[in-house]
Amino acid sequence: SVLVVAAGGLGGLVCILCGVHPVDIYIVASPEGEQYALKLHRLGRTSFRNLKNKRDYHKHRKNMSWLYLSRLSAMKEYAYMKALYERGFPVPKPIDYNRHAVVMELINGYPLCQVRELEDPSSMYNDVMELIVKLANHGLIHGDFNEFNLMLDDHDHVTMIDFPQMVSTTHFNAEWYFDRDVKCIRDFFAKRYNYESELYPTFKDIR
């Protein structure tokens, strides 16, 4: 199949994550042979109650189609990814979006959840905690900052992914979202790498 977006035609679909989550992710190739990641948002796989609890961009509207919500999700993800990329954050380079589809740079790496050992857990812990704080200092909270949404390459360089849950630091639940992101990282590092630190950011640390 072929998806046509503003940047041109992309073909050669190979699914790398399909059917389980509210997204499908494919590896696609441009006519010139350059590979990208294609993310299709499919919020119909998520119950409406769970969606209301996790995402706020529906603005409490009662009557919404799943396609409409999926398009909003894709638009929000692309907008945040573009803004973060332009400000030097470690995120995939956004290429384009159309309807419920987002095309982005293909990251060569592994989700942190698949990495069994780290050469320096302390350094990696500090890096990801600093990323949480840097986001907040730019007025944003990821909202789903965990081992599934951090990609690690062979040089231990971290790339952050998945932005539809992102909220502003002025959100009425901002402190709760911030603390949850921090707790997810602390719990994962303690369980997976047996690394615990008394040093961790709090919402009050935001400048």
From TrEMBL:
Catalytic activity field: L-seryl-[protein] + ATP = O-phospho-L-seryl-[protein] + ADP + H(+); L-threonyl-[protein] + ATP = O-phospho-L-threonyl-[protein] + ADP + H(+)
Alphabetical UniProt keywords: ATP-binding, Kinase, Magnesium, Metal-binding, Nucleotide-binding, Serine/threonine-protein kinase, Transferase
All copies of domain RIO kinase, residue ranges: 5-205
Nucleotide-binding among keywords: yes
EC number per UniProt: 2.7.11.1
GO biological process: maturation of SSU-rRNA
Cofactor annotation: Mg(2+)
InterPro entries: Kinase-like_dom_sf, Rio2, RIO_dom, RIO_kinase, RIO_kinase_CS
UniProt GO cellular component terms: cytosol; nucleus; preribosome, small subunit precursor
GO function term, MF aspect, one: metal ion binding
Keyword Metal-binding in annotation: yes
Family according to the record: Belongs to the protein kinase superfamily. RIO-type Ser/Thr kinase family.
Name the UniProt record assigns to this protein: non-specific serine/threonine protein kinase
Organism: Oncorhynchus mykiss (Rainbow trout)
Taxon lineage: Eukaryota, Metazoa, Chordata, Craniata, Vertebrata
